[in-house]
Amino acid sequence: MLNNWPVVYVLNGPGEKGRGNIYLGETHSFSSRMRQHIQNDEKREKLKTVRVVLDETFNKSVCLDLESQLIKYAAGDGSNNVLNRNIGVADPEYYNRAKYRKTFDDIFEELREAGVFQRTIPQITNSALFKLSPFKSLNEDQAAAAVDIMDGLVEDLAEDTELGNLVFVEGDPGTGKTVVAIYLMKLITDIGDGRDVGEADGEVDMDTVFSEFFLPGSREVFQGLKIALVVPQQSLRKSIQNVFDKTPGLSKNMVIDQWDVADDPDTFDLIIVDEAHRLNQLASQASGVRNSKFHEINEKLFGGEKPDASQLDWLRAKSRQVILMLDRKQTVRPADLPAEEYQELLMGGGGKEPRKYRLYTQMRSLGGNDYIQYVHDVLSPSPPAHQQEFGEYEVGLVNSPDTLVRLIREREEEHGLSRIVAGYAWRWASKKDASAYDIDLGEGVRLQWNTKLLDWVGSKESINEAGSIHTIQGYDLNYAGVIIGEDLKYDPVAQRLCIDRANYFDQPGKQNNKMRNRPTTDEMLLEYITNIYVVLMTRGIRGTFIHVVNPELRKYMRQFFPVLG
């Protein structure tokens, strides 16, 4: 059967700095495939042990699916350098898939007991290494967008294009913008490394949607490129850097911010911007040094011709191609580039009309696209006509803060990755006094804001704290306990949502943009605050529990969500 039957195999061996090396493959001719691997200098040097998964009921589709699952688990486990390319990671449908998948966990456990993996499946799937992995399999929607993006890049990069070409990839929360961005970084890097791919060297089955880009004619376009993934948010950027640091072929130095791009002495061929809605216009920065730096960069890049240039302008001035992963509804501060400026660019204002793609399929929430849209509608001027249900997705109001904490702790014990997050409706007293509590909800429930700025979600103390928009945007949770503070209220007379400036404590989130003479109006602040709560309420994969402080807003929200506990 090893000569004419589909099998999955695992090659592993010792590495450096406490990490091993691993390669996972699928083949219908194991003997010949092993001869190919032995002829590969890298694999012969780094991989010493061979294990084969053989089952007479497994056809090729099952083996391809198992191979993909094991590659994803290996990347999320973090104990090995995964030597695979991500071209072979697939998410195929086939007959009796659910039945076969039940056996995959048993196979994983056998491999874990043999020392191939160190962590359990729940530990892996709840980790940032897994969620931000370049080996995540793309759904049909994401794969189609990625292929179209790659086709466009082949055409654009093959020409001697000018700097500043834009590509827009839009999608609601949970549609996988970050997943696609990271996947493309790995794919482009693998194509550009110059190695042939195909049955001849035992890498992958060439019957994948990205195979054509590894062939002569396309492959050369991606060789020798200077590329980067720009992530404006510090916490998310650090998490992705950690993933890239553990992925052969990638480097944490490829994950940078917009300031790094502006300071680089060279230009880039391609920049992918994740969470592009957090790029800044000319506005007051976190320090006087950064304010001066902003002006210096504008002078350096544009020679006085564009004193009010934005960070997006910087990127366009420094790169031939700029791919923007964007959700205009996630703008949360006055300094963020306004949605109307993105709209003008989308329509081709100031140059040629950019390539545009859209991600539609909701992948994060079990509530699906309907739940995401429902949350938007509830916190909009045009709320739903009646309450909706979302199947297995757990969502509801929790009147008691003590019950909210209990529910999140119970879900944390059962599923992990369950956290409390809150709007910026409380001062950050614990920043200067480590013994102080920031959020006092009564019933003995007192919380501190996140004591860790980087990768707060994965920190040990996060279960005892409350995360803010700035530590949770871009991350997934299994369950989110959302606290809506007195920054958002409901006016029963006017029958509309309204804000309370005095109870909104993110100072950069409400200050006027004096540099561009743009006051932050109440209407603008209402948009920012409701955007924040939409983000918080769409973090949970399995469920969202909502505690509303303001009595009138709580009464309003009861129209749309059941009361729990």
Description of the structure:
With 565 residues, the chain is of the alpha/beta class. It has helices spanning 30-38, 41-46, 60-77, 97-113, 121-125, 128-131, 140-158, 177-192, 234-245, 258-263, 288-302, 311-318, 339-346, 368-378, 401-415, 469-472, 522-537, 551-557; strands spanning 7-13, 20-27, 49-53, 80-82, 165-171, 227-230, 255-256, 268-273, 319-326, 355-359, 394-398, 418-422, 439-442, 445-449, 465-467, 477-484, 488-491, 496-499, 540-548, 563-564. Helix 3 (60-77) packs across helix 4. The protein is globular, with a radius of gyration of 25 Å. The N and C termini lie far apart (57 Å).
Structure classification: alpha/beta
CATH topology of the largest domain, which one? Answer: Rossmann fold
Percent of residues in helical segments?
25-40%
Output the number of helix runs. 18
For this structure, what is the CATH homologous superfamily of the largest domain?
P-loop containing nucleotide triphosphate hydrolases
Q: Beta-strand percentage? A: 15-25%
Structural domain tally: 3
Distance between the termini: 57 Å
How would the blueprint of this fold be written?
Layout: E1 7-13, E2 20-27, H1 30-38, H2 41-46, E3 49-53, H3 60-77, E4 80-82, H4 97-113, H5 121-125, H6 128-131, H7 140-158, E5 165-171, H8 177-192, E6 227-230, H9 234-245, E7 255-256, H10 258-263, E8 268-273, H11 288-302, H12 311-318, E9 319-326, H13 339-346, E10 355-359, H14 368-378, E11 394-398, H15 401-415, E12 418-422, E13 439-442, E14 445-449, E15 465-467, H16 469-472, E16 477-484, E17 488-491, E18 496-499, H17 522-537, E19 540-548, H18 551-557, E20 563-564
Parallel strand pairs: 2-4, 5-9, 5-10, 6-7, 6-8, 8-9, 11-19, 11-20, 12-15, 12-16, 14-15, 16-19
Antiparallel strand pairs: 1-2, 1-3, 13-14, 17-18
